[in-house]
Amino acid sequence: MSHPQMPKQIEDAKIAILTCPFEPPKPKTKHKVDIDTVEKFQTLRQQEQKYFDDMVQKCKDVGATLVICQWGFDDEANHLLMNRNLPAVRWVGGVELELIAIATGGRIVPRFQELAPEKLGRAGLVREKAFGTTKDRMIYIEHCANSRAVTIFIRGGNKMMIEETKRSIHDALCVARNLIRNNSIVYGGGSAEISCSIAVETAADKYLELSRGFADALDAIPMALAENSGLQPIETLSAVKSQQIKENNSCCGIDCNNVGTNDMREQNVFETLIGKQQQILLATQVVKMILKIDDVISPSDY
């Protein structure tokens, strides 16, 4: 919250989401105001005070119980908000404002004149919580009208652990997204690449070296899996290829976990079909781009 004495928990919050500054508008041209008497200074201060009063009263009239503003506001406005029992949060980023608007069902208001009750967002609970030290504070907006927008909060002992966790969660979310788009799967452990390599090698009699080169490229992934698992890459790849051909089982892959079986179906190792297609497609496109290069000009030539 913008003021330490503002309430830290608000139930059944009606949120005004503002992108306009909580202060008097600044003129676009430069002006100079000469104040030579106390009366003039008091008049100017009263006008400024009235402007703040009108803004706060406008928020109260539409029924807002919490103000979230993209910009900051000075101490006078902050003190007035506290006295009027209107909690506020300032310096909220534009992306966060959009997410808050989606989650609460509210509308982003660019001008105070457009503020209306139907543009308020609603949340069952808004609370401020401290983590670690008293300086690390976060605003929780819970029980929103539109619960489809959520936030995953990651904590860790150090930055490296947090970044690794973020990558893992991002990969898991991408897998879920791919399954929603296309729920087809292939077996992992390099079994799909080995099966494709065998199929390409079978057709190599027609396309000769081109197909053999493509098949060798597909073998790179299962060989890397075997090497990273402490296995002999060439021997392991040859054994799995022979097993696939002998058993006519495209589910055979690299036994990275040493569980005693190469059948990825029994190990429950899967990959999304759309992800595997994109991997092979993008790799092929990169190779095609490189093959189009017929000359390289180095700086030493000039």
From TrEMBL:
A matching Pfam family: Cpn60_TCP1
Signal sequence segment: none
Superkingdom, taxonomy of origin: Eukaryota
Main localization (coarse): cytoplasm
Swiss-Prot/TrEMBL keywords: ATP-binding, Chaperone, Cytoplasm, Nucleotide-binding
InterPro entries membership: Chaperone_TCP-1 (IPR017998), Cpn60/GroEL/TCP-1 (IPR002423), GroEL-like_apical_dom_sf (IPR027409), GROEL-like_equatorial_sf (IPR027413), TCP-1-like_intermed_sf (IPR027410)
GO molecular function: ATP binding; ATP-dependent protein folding chaperone
Compartmental location: Cytoplasm
CC annotations in GO: chaperonin-containing T-complex
SUPFAM superfamilies on file: GroEL apical domain-like, GroEL equatorial domain-like, GroEL-intermediate domain like
Family: Belongs to the TCP-1 chaperonin family.
Record-given protein name: T-complex protein 1 subunit epsilon
Provenance organism: Sesamum angolense
